[in-house]
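Task 17 of the worksheet. Students: predict the tertiary structure of the chain below and write it out as structure tokens. Keep your answer in the requested format; marks are given for formatting as well as content.
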Amino acid sequence: MDEAERLWDVSRLWEEHRRAVFPADVRGAEPAGIDLVLLDATVVGCVSGWLDGGGSLDAERGHILRDAVTDLDRVLPEITCADGSRSFRHLRRPAALVSAASPGAAVG
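Model answer:
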């Protein structure tokens, strides 16, 4: 995927996420010891920063976002409600695309 495609895909996914309401059934939930509201806010900050930066994210935020993707992978199997699961699976998509394009991203 080239950078223009990645920017378009993330922009489209991000607009969908911004329009969605945070699912009430996971507000305050901490599956695997991870606060879902904080996880959402972390991803929002990093992906928004990447978009605002025209597809660029500094190394520190890249590291924070990679950790957030790892946390998403840990919590997703434990979110049993449909709205919460759908919302966090959707959140993972732009997070993973941005993370893969950020400084220090693992190759593979």
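Marker's comment: Residues 82-101 form the longest helix (20 residues). The CA atoms of residues 27 and 60 lie 27 Å apart.
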